[in-house]
Amino acid sequence: MNKQISIIEAIDKIKDGDVVMIGGFLGVGTPERLIDALVAKGTKNLTLICNDSGFVDKGVGKLVVSKQFSKIIASHVGTNKETGRQMMEGETEVVLVPQGTLVEQIRCAGYGLGGFLTATGLGTKVEEGKQKVVVGGKEFLLEEPLHANVALIFANTADKYGNLNYHGSTRNFNPIMAAAADITIVEALKIVDVLDPDTVHCPGVFVNYIVEGTNHG
Q1: pLDDT tens digits for 49-104?
Q2: Rounded to a whole number, what is the largest CA-CA distance in the chain?
Q3: The listed CATH number (3.40.640.10, 3.40.50.300, 3.40.630.30, 3.40.1080.10) that belongs to domain 7-114+145-212
Q4: Which of 18, 158, 198, 202 has the most CB atoms lying inside 10 A of its own CB?
Q5: Which residues contact 189 (CB under 8 A, 6 or more apart)?
């Protein structure tokens, strides 16, 4: 089954109010073409799950500037002053999550787990409103899974079945997000007929659609 679709078809999968995961780490391994198309369409009231909010002119930061998020769940927002401004002015809800906790919450959603226990955040604002569990005499926070309606991720190479390959640090959050959404859309720099199984970093079973990307550096 060939999973390649047009950029317009891909963005039409995202509806107002959806929870959207977007791969990348400070613009590295980010699906820039999908982001630009989402900015152009103007889909609103989205919840973002991402490592960071990018920069004002790169990555998911462009969606922040166009005020398409009502809520942002991320581990870092310091590189985008607009995110901070919207947070301080009460325009956008921003939930800051320790990076390891964030990726594990996403993994739990993809693996069908009910959550995980961690000591990270105990005694800080992170613990507010969360259940505590004692195991072996030690206290932990129960962190629940983070699931999305749509995941927009990047790959260096994809085959027509949705198998993905990454170069270096472009992998980051992308493969783990692929498993944690109802619909996963991949922007791939290169699309081939079949990838060598030994080079597959993310299996096509997690991928619904593929669009052709552009080399954004």
Answers
A1: 999 999 999 999 999 999 999 999 999 999 999 999 999 999 999 999 999 999 99
A2: 54
A3: 3.40.1080.10
A4: 158
A5: 155, 156, 157, 213, 214, 215
